[in-house]
Amino acid sequence: MSDATDDGEGAIADRIDRYLDALREWATGLYHGLVTHPAYEKIEKEAEDLEDTFMLACFPDAFGIPSPVSYYTAELLPYLESEFEAWERRMWDRGSMLERKGQQYHF
Amino acid sequence: MEKFVFFGGKGGVGKTTMSAAYAVKCADAGLDTLVVSTDPAHSTSDVFDQQLGDEPQAVDGRDRLWAMEIDPDEEVEHHLMETKRALGDQVSAALVNEIDRQIEMAHQTPGAYEAALFDRFVDVMRSSEAYDRVVFDTSPTGGTLRLLGLPEFLEGWIDRLLRKREQSIDLFEKAAIGNNEPRRVMDGDPILARLRERKEFFEYAGETLREHAAFFLVVNPDELSVRETRRAAEGLSDRGLSVRGLAVNRLTPGPDDDENGRGARYLRDRVATERAHLRTLREEFDQPVVAEIETRVEEVKGDFLTEVAAELDIDTAAPATPSSEST
Questions:
Q1: Which helix (H) or strand (E) holds B47?
Q2: In this structure, are residues B10 and B224 in contact, taking their beta carbons and an 8 Å threshold?
Q3: Assign residue A8 a region: left if phi > 0, alpha if psi is -120 to 50, beta otherwise?
Q4: pLDDT of residue B324
Q5: What number of C-beta contacts closer than 8 Å exist between A and B?
Q6: How far apart are CA A70 and CA A62, in angstroms?
Q7: Which InterPro entries does the record cross-reference, listed alphabetically (chain A) (predicted)?
């Protein structure tokens, strides 16, 4: 019988644990959604913007602007695989600076 | 005299002859000497009567003398292949084409040829431990000035790129709040590594040109050449490169006093105008006239080269680099 009581106490402890877990998950989710995510999204967007400037400085000839140093920057291309493609897409897609900044706010 | 000696000037004034003659002079003085032609219209081969290539070759019949002709086309091709090889190693098959096109394009731009030439001659300077003196026979003024102006321009450029890249990586790292993996990390970033390598290369080039190189301008005694020389001297000084002297080439020999035919009268007039230009060069330029070479009927080759070398008043004393001080 003492086993059963143990089980009962164990079950309650389990339920409390589960409840706390769920609470923690919600809290984390809420915190993440309200604070963390918008924060790092913003920083990441800013970083992307900087990266775009870097890419444009490296490869203006991709947009028809001749560059005297593209001979040197071409040797960076093999290491810029994902950046290059994403950058080209971003550059072609970007309607305006406002649109880009607006994406940070989820209306 | 510095280890690296450059001869420049307007097209057709005899830069190749002068640099070859000076190299012969250095070699005869007991210095291991390399002549490098950076002029795309190579004529060093003709002066030495021997086909030269992109690697240093011993000059036939002369001790301590080597020569080479830089081929930028080959360098562009080599650079293209190298970049493409790295591309194959790094990039997934799906994207290769897109990036490949970009790389091809970069090697077709007008600057590519100059960049390749620049890379090659800096390479030659870097790997010249075997020689006591390296003589560069450069392309005509405009090209050379642009080439020598490159390091400063490129250093600034690379600096800006480096800073941008560092900033964006820094932000990506900061964006990784909590346990998120940052999209890019500063350590081992291949782009930063490449850019730094390049920066070092340009810094070496700039420093070597400013500290360990001497420039001579070859000039003919005529109006156009004198004017261009003035511009070249100013251009080089503006870039902090020291012009050591002017080598006057192609002076017309005067006739004997008792001659009075049409040819003699022509020569006398010619000599008179040339004297005037020579005076301009002597009086209006900061740099001394270090050679006055008369026109020769035959091509300047073989023994003539030694003769011209004797008339060059440019010293050959070993450069004051640490390597030669120890001897």
A1: helix B44-48
A2: yes
A3: alpha
A4: 39
A5: 119
A6: 10
A7: DUF7990
Instruction: Reply yes or no on whether the pLDDT at B323 is more than 50.
Output: no
* B108–A contact, CB cutoff 8 A: no
B275 is written with which tokens? 């004297």
Find, among B242, B71, B218, the residue nearest to B141 by Cα. B218
Residues B144-165 pLDDT 10s = 777 787 788 888 889 999 999 9
Contact indicator for B219, B204 with CB cutoff of 8 Å: no
pLDDT in tens, B29-80: 999 999 999 877 778 888 998 999 989 999 999 999 999 999 888 889 999 9
Q: Report the largest interatomic distance among the alpha carbons of chain B, rounded to a whole angstrom.
A: 100
d(CA B257, CA B267): 11
Cβ neighbour number for residue B131 with a 10 Å cutoff? 20
Residues A105 and A98: their CA atoms lie apart, in Å, by 11
Residues composing chain A: 107
Locate A1 and state its tokens.
Answer: 């019988």
E strand spans, B15-146? 33-37, 57-58, 65-69, 133-137
CB-based contact A74 B165, cutoff 8 Å: no
* Low-confidence residues of chain A: pLDDT under 70: 1-7, 93-107
Q: What are phi and psi of B222, to 5 degrees?
A: -140, 165
B116: amino acid identity, one letter: A
Query: How big is chain B, counted in residues?
Result: 327
Please give the span between the terminal C-alpha atoms of chain B, in angstroms, as a whole number. Answer: 17
Identify the bridge partners of residue B135 per DSSP, sorted by sequence position: B5, B35
Q: Tell me, yes or no, if B175 comes closer than 8 A to chain A by beta carbon.
A: yes
Distance (Å) from the C-alpha of residue A99 to the closest C-alpha of chain B? 21
* Distance from the A42 Cα atom to the nearest Cα atom in chain B, whole angstroms: 8
